[in-house]
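#dry-run=false #mode=assembly
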Amino acid sequence: MADNPPHPVRWRDALPPAILIATLAATPLVATAIGDPFLVKVATRVVIFSIAAVALNFVLGFGGLVSLCHAGLFGVGGYVVGVLAWHDFNAEPVWIFHGTSNLAISLPLAAMTSGLAAAAVGAISLRTSGPYFLMITLAFNQMLYYGAIALQKYGGEDGLQIMSDVSLGPFDVSNRYRFFYLALVVLSATLLLTGRFVRSRFGVALRAAAQNETRAIAVGIDPWVYRLVAFVISGALVGVAGALLAAGQQFVSPVDMSWDRSGDLVVMAVLGGIGVVWGPALGAAVFIVLELVLSSWTSHWQLAFGLLVVLIVVTLRGGLADLGRALAGARRMEAARG
Amino acid sequence: MTPSLLIEQTLNGVQFGIMLFLMSAGLTLVFGIMNFINLAHGSLYMIGAFAGAATQAATGSFALAIVAAPIAAALAGLVLESALLRRFYGRDHLDQVLVTFGTILALNEATRILFGLTPLRMDLPSALAGHVEIIPGAPYPTFRLAILAVGLLVAASLYVIIMRTRLGMWVRAGASDRQIASAMGVNVPLVFAALFATGAALAGLAGVMAAPILSVQVGMGEPILILALVVTVIGGIGSIRGAFVAALLVGVVDTFARVLLTPALGGMAIFMTMAAILAFRPKGLFPAHG
Amino acid sequence: MADAILQVECLMKSFGGLRATNDLSMNVERGECHAIIGPNGAGKTTFIAQLQGMLRPDAGVIRLEGRDIAGEPAHRRARMGIARSFQITSLVPNFTALDHAALAVQARSGHSFRFWRAARRDARLLDPAREAIETVGLGARADTQARDLSHGEARQLELAIAIAQRPKLLLLDEPMAGMGRKDGAAMTRLLAQLKRTYSMILIEHDMQAVFSLADRISVLVAGHIIRTGAPAEIRADPEVRAAYLGH
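#status=ok
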């Protein structure tokens, strides 16, 4: 699956994500220049789903775990922000807590809650492996989905509108541009963190267990604990992404938690390439732009999209990141192989 | 809960369970033998329902619709299997998930193009539209009883085929040991295709039987697919017996949970049950793979 | 007996009706190279797998330095000092030779909940790993990915991983499987050298190697040890000759 030896960080490896971040950082300038603020909205969506896809790939590409409950965990993060803002706006305290629209509080809480949900889901799902894991996480995704619908007080099936302006500590981030840069900072941090994680001892143990479990166990590594911790980290990060989406569009709804959203995240990751940390961010960007372009052409864009997904699986196995590497020339591959 | 309601809901649960069994049988066999996770199995259910509704609209015959649905689903299954999915039998599960996920998106949209956005209706012939008073004071829809009968008949014949015939012996051997399955050598691709088509036909049958109760619309396959996956996992992947027991369990639990709790909380009950069972038996109730 | 590193008593393991391990008892002295020979299907690999913990015995006792470990999972046994090289090479295809050894060092030196520092720059891992790689003579191929190693080199790497674990007991399951004469001779020399440092159980079909390396030999037939003795005794035993060495 993932094909990256744990080599030391070279500046060349940091180049593609740096270009990605720089390109994204420039979009608001372009939007202002051409007078199209809609572009910032798209870019924000790209950044948020990049965080989610990178988070998913931490367990998918490096842990070998095909999780289909990440949309559910994404939604948990979103609902934490939404519910806290609802209590803040309606001045209805939960027990002793007054609710808040301050992301400096609600983002960490969202991460914690999603992480806890991931721990519960993971503790059961990781007792199994392979196809069982996949189907069980899918089922848990639906459980979280119905759980959100059951929140009648917070809109149930219709979702929850965030009425108050969100802030980050003393800063007002309800402004579209400011919010975009906030999300971009979170994406950069996510890339940096997961980049360190996969090369650390933890990452090495996780990857070894993913690619050859027998070998990992034989040298004394217990795959279960490392997978569980990876799953919790991944869940917390995807929860942050969900929280950002909720805060950004001032709305959170069960729709974003349905299982096909989990499928979308997997498609983003694979599309970009699951072998490198930044691959899924590229995949998310392509996915969202493609969705936008296709849907502007035809209302039946999902037909084309579905066929495209099939085509990608049939042909491009390493994702776009691999395509880039292939185009960069065989020279580098030779050099890498010694 | 009154005794008559209890009986009515139990019947509903068992009837729903039987439908789930028809869905899960194909899923669990295809997985057990070909080692293939077919998320597009729900699309075959949808194809069955649409084929049935379209046939009835064109001919006015309910009987023809019931026959046409499994045939259409089996044909669709055959085309899918031979043109695309069979290449993925040996690939890792991630690829399988992706290719069937893409297939779902494409098939759903294609159906929307063909039939439009408004849900189709399937009308019951007068013979099946009424109620039967099984116990005094508790009329029960005739059609639901018919589903129950058909489903039990299919389940029984499947059981006989798998437990008593040569073909079934092969299927069982294949489900518990893939090495044997591949070592059989003789025209394996054909047998795989036939198995896939059979599973598709059963899904199509489930689809057309659900059509008069639910509405026939795009996306109807996915909720039932997920419940069928839950059934497969609880029963133990590859086990027909497990699928039968788990399908009835899921059907009854789901039905009662929705009556006793709010619909959304009831929707969660199944997954709670699954989690509870897997916490103690990670390989399901009847693990086929040792 | 007081200084047995490993004691196995009355080990039983059945698959369906087949008794793969049938009332097996043996011990390994500290510093001993104990070879197990027997016809194909005698249950040698099954036995090794139970010692390592990948298979759980149905009954019986396995003591490592006097402590019963039969209930311990495989990863914990590895940490207690049991290292196994696999009959069929089991590597991580895109890890380099050095990565494999470093993984073993990492696993032995405590938990891996270290998230920040790049493992590939950690001298505490790399130095002992390189030493293990060089011990088996793979120094020049340290940075080659496992998938690009030759069969013989992969067999050497199996051994390097095992010794990077600094085990108390080495379980070597046919270390020369599939090797040519030349590689086989080199492996024999290497094992003769390792023998001075480690207690080991050796399963091997190459009788010349077995008789030159082993301090004691046990003969396993149908899951049961029928004879244990010094190489000369085993060679002379008529029953063993009939059961095994005859062909």
